[in-house]
Write a structure and sequence with these properties.
two-stranded antiparallel ribbon; 7 helices; Aerobactin siderophore biosynthesis IucA/IucC-like C-terminal domain-containing protein; alpha+beta; 4-stranded mixed sheet
Length: about 270
């Protein structure tokens, strides 16, 4: 992910069972603003979860709840127009989708994509943080990445359709923003796995295979081709998006956001 697409830093709560220095916990928290809820007898969300993450993905399918959430994000984005807010919602929500695939491919952990198993919160700059249930290894229902991708697709598509209706944003743009995030994710994971001492090295072949499988004809919703314009300033792969995310039309802390590094409106890619 290019720097402009990294989730804004949210002060996410650290539930007691997760106050450990496990690589996956830091990986999810720092890169995707996600906190996983481990499976067990008390797998249901607790009162503290609901307080810290007041919305479930299921709530987003209620037009009134979604309308209020988008209005709040609009205010945090300096009074952004509805279509801008909806488009940026998709860009931020794409981080959740990427986090689900990252846990699956890089760590072999299945985080549930079911709407009732994911809660979220809104932070500064309309950023979103997530609390996601991990599925028990005894109940895994996904024999392959394609099976898991099908569940992720169904959930994300449903949410994006709701956002499109509520905001008037372009549905194709919302879709490609999610695709761009996921395709960039896999390239970044593969590049990182090649670095000396990388904790992802043991999963390099798996991540490469998953990237190829996700982009195969069997998964048409995720299939896409993006032009490489990287590496970025940090040396990470950078892909040119098909559509602008509209962030330049927002104002945060009194300043216009400007164009992202991967934006087709940016001058940066024209120099490659």
């Amino acid at each position: 992910m290019d720097k402009s697409e990294q989730p804004e830093k949210l002060k996410l709560p650290e539930p007691p069972e997760e106050r450990q220095s496990e690589p996956l916990e830091a990986f999810l928290r720092e890169r995707f603003a996600m906190v996983r809820k481990r499976p067990g007898k008390d797998a249901e969300f607790e009162e503290e979860d609901v307080q810290n993450f007041p919305y479930s993905v299921q709530d987003l399918l209620d037009p009134d709840v979604l309308r209020l959430l988008l209005l709040r994000q609009s205010v945090l984005l300096g009074g952004a127009a509805p279509d801008v807010t909806g488009t940026l919602f998709a860009k931020r929500y794409s981080v959740l989708a990427a986090g689900l695939f990252a846990a699956y491919s890089a760590y072999g952990v299945v985080l549930s994509p079911e709407p009732g198993d994911i809660r979220l919160r809104i932070g500064a700059g309309a950023a979103m943080g997530y609390r996601v249930c991990e599925e028990s290894r005894l109940t895994y229902a996904y024999p392959s990445l394609s099976a898991y991708a099908g569940k992720v697709e169904a959930q994300v598509r449903t949410v994006l359709r709701a956002v499109q209706r509520a905001s008037g944003a372009n549905g194709s743009v919302l879709h490609t923003l999610v695709l761009h995030q996921i395709h960039t994710l896999y390239l970044c994971l593969e590049a990182e796995s090649q670095q000396a001492g990388s904790p992802l090295a043991a999963r390099a072949d798996t991540m490469r295979r998953h990237r190829q499988e996700l982009n195969a004809p069997a998964n048409p919703w995720f299939h896409a081709r993006f032009r490489s314009i990287g590496p970025d300033a940090a040396g990470r792969p950078l892909l040119l998006r098909r559509h602008c995310c509209q962030a330049y039309r927002t104002v945060q802390s009194g300043r216009s956001h400007g164009y992202c590094d991967s934006c087709p409106k940016s001058e940066a890619y024209k120099r490659t």
